[in-house]
Design brief:
By secondary structure, this protein is of the alpha/beta class. The chain has one domain (2-213): Purple Acid Phosphatase, chain A, domain 2 (4-Layer Sandwich), CATH 3.60.21. Helix content is 29%, strand content 18%. The chain has 7 helices and 10 strands. The strands form 2 sheets. The protein has a 5-stranded mixed sheet. A 5-stranded mixed sheet has the order 4-5-6-8-7, with no helix packed on it. A hairpin with a 4-residue loop joins strand 7 (148-151) and strand 8 (156-159). The longest helix is centred in the N-terminal third of the chain and has 13 residues, at 12-24. The relative contact order is 0.18.
């Protein structure tokens, strides 16, 4: 069995809770689908933990913004968070992020942060027509922050949801498992108040962290699988 995590977004309390649950399940192989960085303030702690545990990780779009200095083209809020992280991230962690790739194959599963047309920034809505032109039969991607599993007669797909910023109306951290036959979504409670306190101390207004209490994107919007603006 393997565990699949994604979209940590510098939320160390959530990552710790998820990894603790994975350890209780005696799962040794973990893959991360990217976005270690972005949004919250524990970028060094999250990078350190993934590196210490040698968790195979992809590059997400927020990691790309950090690694390259390129701004997000659609969100000033994202850019403010990235600017903050760029002032605190340790060089060794930034160098590590720069080594990551946005797609790979692992354990027989095609992995991407976004999708297979744009590995960094595509929002995948699974369908037979989408996967019919792609090599392989098992797929996993992140980026949407909305967990789902999907199958047709040939293909099997999973989005594990987000460890650090769930957006489906459930504030619990999300991840997935693969047992060789099926993907399963798992949810874990964590102390989001701890992170909210850290964000406040770092100088961020409630807009940047109050969403953690309800499981939404910044500003309170709840997402569904077919709506990612």
């Amino acid at each position: 069995m393997i565990a699949i995590i994604s979209d940590i977004h510098a939320n160390h309390p959530a990552l710790m809770a998820v990894l603790s649950e994975i350890d209780k399940m005696c799962i040794e192989t973990i893959v991360c689908l990217g976005d270690v960085g972005g949004y919250y303030c524990d970028i060094n702690e999250c990078c350190q933990l993934l590196r210490e545990r040698e968790i195979f990780s992809l590059m997400g779009n927020h990691d790309w913004y950090l690694a390259t200095g390129e701004p997000c083209p659609r969100s000033n809020s994202v850019n403010r968070c990235i600017r903050y992280q760029s002032t605190i991230i340790q060089r060794e962690h930034l160098d590590w992020l720069r080594t990551l790739k946005p797609s790979a194959e692992r354990e027989g599963i095609a992995l991407a942060h976004g999708g297979w047309k744009d590995p960094l920034d595509e929002y995948v809505v699974p369908s037979t027509s989408y996967f019919s032109g792609l090599p392989g039969t098992h797929f996993a991607s992140g980026h949407t922050h909305v967990p789902c599993t999907w199958t047709d007669e040939t293909n099997c797909y999973c989005n594990p949801g987000s460890v650090g910023q769930p957006r489906d109306g459930d504030p619990r951290a999300s991840f997935a498992t693969w047992d060789g036959t099926a993907f399963t979504i798992k949810r874990v409670d964590y102390d989001y108040v701890q992170l909210q306190t850290k964000m406040k101390r770092a100088g961020f207004e409630p807009y940047f962290y109050e969403n953690l209490s309800i499981g939404s994107r910044l500003g309170g919007k709840i997402d569904s699988l077919d709506l990612h603006l």
